[in-house]
Design brief:
Length: 269
């Protein structure tokens, strides 16, 4: 069984809300990402979502856009992200890792080659922000061959018909975007989130995790109460950016300080 499915099944059986932690590979420095991944796991993250830097990350707000810019300036890429996951696997063989990125680098590499290399590296899921379900069938075929989950976003504006098409292809979990707009923006309307999650769950038995706008213990606890877990990104990227140029140890300490209260909030549900 894929590590994502195993981990989320375990969370459900334990009555635990899943915590997904997002950081950008290579931000603020290439040598920071691996220790940061281990710190996030040690601080309570159930799944690591590793952002693959791209020159036009259209779904991201200013915080994560700047993270992508810094990472690209440091030479980070899809290839080096997979190499990093392979290094992570030397010490951690259990925590799921999802690569989150954009279609262009994947198209350039080719679906079959991506699947082969991602599987060899120990990647568990691929989330391609700008690849709609109509264009994702061939990628899904290649990923299924190596038991990697193809994860999709669903937005507040996604129609019922489109939700049906997305969930038909989706694996691992469904990532529900709690806000209209880009990452890191706005305030969450919990009632609206709960209503939309009901619609999604009518189409799939997959866990539904909620991201965009989860920034602290309070928001995590509020959204976690109506979902299977939360995805935290901008607040982590911002914390790392604020310490750019500092030691990796100092950056990792700050990451732990940010994510531990979020874990605590989820565990109090």
């Amino acid at each position: 069984m894929n590590r994502i499915n195993t981990r989320l099944t375990d969370c459900k059986s334990q009555g635990k809300k899943a915590l997904v932690a997002y950081i950008v590979h290579g931000d603020p420095a290439l040598e920071t990402t691996l220790p940061a991944m281990h710190t996030l796991v040690d601080s309570g993250a159930d799944i690591i979502e590793l952002g693959v830097p791209f020159s036009d990350p259209m779904a991201e707000g200013p915080v994560i856009q700047k993270g992508h810019e810094r990472a690209l300036g440091n030479g980070a890429s899809l290839t080096s992200a997979m190499a990093l996951v392979q290094e992570f696997r030397k010490a951690n063989t259990e925590t799921p890792v999802v690569l989150m990125g954009y279609a262009n680098p994947i198209e350039r590499m080719g679906y079959a080659e991506l699947a082969k290399r991602a599987s060899a590296a120990g990647v568990d899921g691929i989330l391609t922000v700008d690849l709609p379900p109509e264009e994702a069938v061939d990628l899904s075929v290649e990923l299924k061959k190596v038991e990697i989950e193809n994860i999709f976003l669903i937005a507040p504006t996604t129609t019922d018909e489109r939700i049906a098409a997305i969930t038909k292809l989706a694996g691992g979990f469904v990532y529900y975007v709690s806000l209209k707009g880009v990452t890191g923006a706005g305030l969450i309307d919990t009632a609206s989130v709960e209503q939309k999650l009901g619609v999604i769950r009518a189409h799939t038995d997959l866990p539904v995790l909620v991201g965009f706008g989860i920034k602290d213990e309070v928001t995590a606890k509020t959204v976690g109460a109506v979902s299977d877990g939360v995805v935290v990104g901008s607040v982590l990227v911002s914390a790392m950016a604020s310490l750019a140029g500092e030691t990796t140890d100092k950056i990792c300490t700050q990451l732990s300080t940010v994510i531990q209260p979020i874990r605590k909030g989820l565990d109090e549900i």
